Structure formats: structure tokens, C-alpha cells
């Protein structure tokens, strides 16, 4: 019969917890949309995270949701905490992707 | 441990990795498609002076063979297995027991911090860099002054840098390994500080060849304006976040919102780093492997505070090599005084 000391039991428990967590995290890395949604959920105020989610939604054909995320990305990019190196890039990319979204909507 | 126990450990680990990572439904993410496009040409990439040549070659070969995404992930998994073997070997080289080495390997293998390099196909460059750096440190852990070993160190570092330029941290980790292990058999003409001088000279020549320190600091985008102190505090906050995620990885994400982190937290991050540096110094004699692991982490993360890449703060795949150091420190701490053994010279340079 296996006998564990308290320390060994704690180590095994911690490893199992890490393993469980990483099993779920590997699944996050299995698609662009899933990953972008995960990142946006963990950084809801970050314009780049919203922009990436908007792009992923656009690529998967969910145009209405993409438009919402791209609008939000542009809005957030004007925030005081957003550094200069992110602000302009996100704003321009969000506008370009929104134009593309509008064009695709018109084709539907 | 018996051979049978080693085999059992390896088999269990292999099964876990296969179950975790072999996902037929998985597909490309983030920069994978950029790599695919750059690897689509019929002409093989040049080796020199193309950055990440080894990474480009491996992608190009798989693209030419028409392999699906799963094959890319399997190659990553095989490289990850190689990293784990090197971690096992390094932990044994620093004098810890075989069970401690397996604990370190299990820690690296199942921790979510490793997911970004193993599951993300473009994370392969980080695996190649880690393989090169770990191999160089393994070479440096014994008889570094001998010509074949020296050649082994140079080739390993070259392999790592061909995987990703971040392997230049080997220029810090190899002298650290030599310095702290200070092999008693070394001849008088080969003092422990010699690799430090050699590595520093190589680094200086490389920085000069690249165009000077200013060019290295602004390696990503010359047009972006970020002050030295601003970058230091941002990266300190990023490092502190990752350190907390090593202990409890509840909110690991590839793009954390560090811009929202206040100045107090950024200063706190700096304090944590200083505490880790103090700890490495404090434990250098009483718990040398713990000190080695902490110093490993700090040395391998240090260039990130110099090289400014404002669009990407330190994240999990960039923290992979520092994470290995933390695992070594953690396992040595758990080994509870049994660490090191006769591998550690009481009169060492350390």
C-alpha cells in the first residue's frame, strides 16, 4: 500500500492541480477564436485584446459580434492608461477591420 | 531509483503529455499563419544571417511535406520532451537525487507555464532556444576548459540562437553554471571567472556588430518612444505577475493588461525582483542549488529589461527558461538540505 507523508501528499496535490489547469489551458490554444475570447475575458479593458477578438469573430463569419468588439477596441484605445505605442495601431486596425466587416455585411 | 521506476516515470509522463497535447481539433493561432506564409516558398531559407534560421528550416520542411497542424504540434511535443530530458539531466548534474529530478521534470511538464511553448506551434523557437541553452549549461557543468567541451558549449549556444535570438541568455547562464559549480579538477590556467570574461567579451562584440547598445535596446521598433525607467517598471510588473502565476496559475494569459497596473504595483514588482536577487545571494552557501535556480531565473530574464519590445511585455513563452530556473530552485528547496552533495565545492567561487 502506498503511504505518503503530508509533504509528499501536498506536492502530488499541487502537481495534480497544475496538470488539471494546464489541460484546460491547452484547449484554449486550440483555435484562434477560443484563444482571443479567453484573452479578452482576462483583459476586458485592453484594446488589443478586443481587436484580436473582433478579428477572430470576423474570420469566423460572426460579423455582428465582430463589429461590436471592433467598436469597443477603438473606444478603449482612447483610454488614459493605453500607452502611445498601442493607441494608434489599435485605432487604425480596428477601423480597417470594421470597414471589412461592413463590406461583408453588405454582401450578405 | 531502479531502472523500472525510471521507466514508469517516463511512461506516465509521456501518456500525460500525449493526452494533454494531441488534440485533433486544434488549429493555427496567432502568429502561426505568418510563419506558414513565410515558409510556403519552394526555396529553403538561408542559414546565415537570417534570424531564427533553425525555426524557419523546421517550418519550411514541414510545409514542404504538406503536414497538417497536428504534425507541427507533435514536433513541438518532441522538442518539449527533449527539454524535459535536459532538465532531468541538469538537476542530476547539480547534485539532486533522481526523485528530485523527476519532480522537476513533472513540474515543468504539467505546469500551465509550459503550455504556451508546447501547444503554440510558433512557440517552437522558444523550445529550440531552451534546448540549446540547456545543452550548453550541461556541457559547462563539467570540464568546461577542455576543447571538446568548449566546442560543445559554442555549438549548443549557436543551435539555440539559430532557434531564437533569446538564447543569448546562455552567455549569462553558462558562466553562472561554471561559476557556481566550480569544478575542482580545473587547471590553474582556467579560473572560474574566465568564462565570465569570455562571455562578456562576446556580448560586447555582438552588441557592437549589431550597431551599438541603442540599436539593441530599440530592437523591435525604432519609432516607439519608451523611457528606460518606464520600461523597467512595466517589465518588473510583468515579471511579478508571471512569478505569481508560477505559484498559482489561475489567470495565465498571453496578453495580460499590464497598462492598467498602477505605479505602486510596478514598484512592487521591482521589489520582488530585488528580493529574489537578495535571496540568491543569501542562499549561495546554505542552499546553493536554490541560489543557482533563483540566479538562473534572474539572469535569463534580465535581457528583457534592456531590450525594449513595447508591443509585447514579458509573457509565458518568453518566461519559459526563467521558469526552469524557478523549478530547479523549488525542487532544491523541497529536497530539504539533501541538495548538492559533493557536487558543490565549499570553497567554490560561488
Instruction: Give the overall form of chain B.
Output: globular
Rg of chain A, Å, rounded: 20 Å
Number of strands of chain B: 0
Shape of chain A: elongated
Percent in helix of chain A: over 70%
Major sheet description of chain A: none
Strand content of chain A: under 5%
Class of secondary structure makeup of chain B:
mainly alpha
DSSP strand (E) fraction of chain B?
A: under 5%
Features:
heterodimer; A: 108 residues; mainly alpha; Serine Threonine Protein Phosphatase 5, Tetratricopeptide repeat; 2 domains; 79% helix; B: 350 residues; 63% helix; 0% strand; globular
Structural summary, described in words:
- The complex is a heterodimer of chains A (108) and B (350).
- Chain A has helices spanning 6-28, 32-42, 47-59, 63-76, 84-107.
- Chain A is mainly α.
- Chain A has 2 domains: 1-30; 31-107, Serine Threonine Protein Phosphatase 5, Tetratricopeptide repeat.
- The longest helix of chain A has 24 residues, at 84-107.
- Chain B has one domain.
- The A-B interface holds A 7, 11, 15, 18-19, 21-23, 25-27, 29-32, 35, 38-39, 42-46, 48-49, 52, 81-86, 89 and B 16, 20-21, 23, 25-30, 103, 106-107, 110-112, 114-116, 118-120, 221, 224-226, 249-257, 259-260, 310-311, 334.
